[in-house]
Write a structure and sequence with these properties.
Elements lengths: L2 H30 L37 E2 L13 H10 L4 E2 L18 E8 L6 H11 L4 E4 L1 H6 L1 H9 L3 E4 L12 H19 L5 E2 L5 E2 L1 H9 L3 E3 L16 H10 L5 E6 L3 H16 L3 E3 L2
Parallel strand pairs: 2-8, 3-4, 3-9, 3-10, 4-5, 6-8
Antiparallel strand pairs: 1-7
Helix pairs in contact: 3-9, 6-7, 8-9
């Protein structure tokens, strides 16, 4: 090999080494740089892959908690403030796991002091549409009341116009799971999927981030409460409910209204079913009666 050829070979080797060094440096810099947020038309991680916007607290360790199924009902024993004692004690017991049975912030659990204010949370379960949700929304709009509507995956797909109206009018849309399974009867992976599928569907189709979960049939465990909390959800149960879901026996309007008003209590979470014609008919009168008693309608 002559001198000229050696010079060309050495020069080529130098260029190759410099190019390689530049490429490696660029790769390292790009890998270390912060990732930009996805654009609106880009694929986003599912709710099971990333926490919802509500998740800010450290995750709860689930495996050490009980998976025993608890079938919720508010009971018939009431304290001096007309609050179901079971709801009070359950809030104290499970509140740290994300359970919400009633609001205790305005009066102590012992009911020794008068409440600083009287709040009431109005919620509706929407397993299927029976033709009364429009009237309920009309009444809420007229009375300037915000409520929570817990929807299933089937409802979200079938009743998109009603869900869109809920969102547009500032009502709160809650997660009643994708397929309405009893959560403590399923694996934690299935429970995560049940919450995540509906969360993603509502976010993608309505631009709305849900943060409240109502477990189907009111059945939960310590583990499912913690799982929902780790996904950014508060599990909303109730401190008042009555047999309004039986469409074959809708009930007398006057008697139903009396049931709603006689059980008013500070921090109460009312569960009503939107399939009931009676609920739709008496809703305005109930709102007026509660307000006359000093109650304020709020949402979580």
């Amino acid at each position: 090999m002559n001198k000229k050829d050696k010079t060309v070979l050495i020069s080529s080797a130098c260029v190759f080494m410099l190019s390689t060094a530049f490429a490696v440096n660029t790769f390292l810099n790009v890998s270390a740089s912060p990732k930009s947020k996805p654009k609106a038309n880009e694929t986003r991680p599912s709710a099971s892959e990333q926490p919802t916007t509500a998740e800010k607290q450290p995750a709860i360790e689930i495996t050490s908690l009980s998976g025993k199924k608890i079938c919720w009902g508010q009971g018939r024993n009431f304290d001096p403030l007309n609050r179901p004692r079971d709801a009070v004690t359950s809030q104290e017991k499970y509140g740290g796991l994300g359970g919400f049975f009633m609001d205790l912030t305005d009066c102590d659990a012992s009911a020794q002091n008068e409440p600083q204010s009287k709040k009431i949370y109005l919620t509706f379960d929407e397993g299927y549409e029976n033709g009364y949700t429009t009237r309920i929304l009309d009444t809420l709009k007229e009375k300037k009341v915000k409520a929570v509507f817990f929807i299933t995956g089937d409802y979200a797909k079938r009743e998109g116009e009603l869900v869109r109206r809920m969102v547009d009018e500032g009502q709160v849309v809650g997660n009643h799971t994708w397929r309405h399974y009893s959560m403590p009867e399923k694996s934690l992976d299935t429970c995560r999927e049940e919450i995540g599928l509906l969360h993603d569907y509502v976010r993608e189709n309505f631009g709305y981030e849900m943060h409240l979960l109502r477990p189907p049939k009111g059945e939960f465990s310590e583990q499912t409460l913690a799982l929902a909390s780790n996904m950014g959800y508060k599990t909303c149960l109730w401190s008042f409910a009555y047999k309004d879901w039986d469409t074959n026996s809708p009930g007398d309007k006057a008697q139903s209204l009396e049931k709603l008003t006689e059980r008013l209590h500070p921090g109460g979470i009312y569960l009503l079913h939107a399939v009931s014609p009676t609920n739709a008919a008496i809703l305005g009168d109930f709102i007026d009666s509660a307000r006359a008693g000093g109650y304020e309608f709020v949402t979580p």
